[in-house]
Write a structure and sequence with these properties.
alpha/beta, six-stranded parallel β-sheet, 14 strands, globular
Amino acid sequence: MRSATIYRYSVPMDAGVILRNQRLKTRDGLLIHLVDGALQGWGEIAPLPQFSLETLEQAQAVAIANAECWTSGRDELDESLPSVAFGFSCAVAELQQRLPQQADYRKAPLCTGDPDELFDMLSALPGEKVAKVKVGLYEAVRDGMVVNVLLEAMPDLTLRLDANRSWTRSKADGFAKYVNPALRGRIAFLEEPCKTREESRDFAKETGIAIAWDESVRESGFVVQAEPGLAAIVIKPTLTGSLARCQQLIEQAHAAGLVAVISSSIESSLGLTQLARMAAWLTPNTVPGLDTLDLMQAQVVRSWPQSPLTLLAAEQLDVVWHRV
């Protein structure tokens, strides 16, 4: 006998969280809970404002339609909206015990705030020291100087950079100018530095700084293939689609000799723990990009190890839809 419940959550964010020049005050999303006899599974459906094509309201409508379909015994679900496809596929995979329990809770920490505290935090990282820096929010020259200081100060540090296509080619060159050529090899990759893929390719060729595709991965007609200067693809499942689609992209990347990085779209703690399980399963040799929980003021249903944040139980969330 199948039953399903859809919950809605709203978690306050830290005041400083800005997405594409817009402040994100709360993180809002849905949780889907599927039950089939003694088996159950959870999934998170949380379109990210400014990044997802669908709104939460659109996702909710499709999620309800899928839940009605699933509880009626039919498994042909609507996967047209990436956030819904991902959340439902995780819930079904959990229920069918296809999503391994082992998780990779390593995270490439996001470098922000006071430099002295930053150095202390990075020095304390166990094992491979990989961190992330968001660039493109300020002046490109400033970004270049910050990256250069970090790499110079910590010889065992590798950085992942993310520009979100924010630079013109001249600004990207301005950034590179302030990064010592001898240190550029420790930039694992710079995600989508320029407004077009062609400009990003030229940037990589002329500066020797490796790039990664992020937004490009989700564009129609994108094909995973090896290219000069390309080191990785970044997969954000909430923005990409079903578990099967993400697995396909990862396998294609590995076949092409590229790194595949599973990355957060600021999901709740429940979604983040599932991403950590995906990372341990599908990208075991790569540190995932999951350092977003500290941007939120509470956890939801499942806790991240050692997080001090309050955990909201399912009973504390609003029920959007339920069928037994």
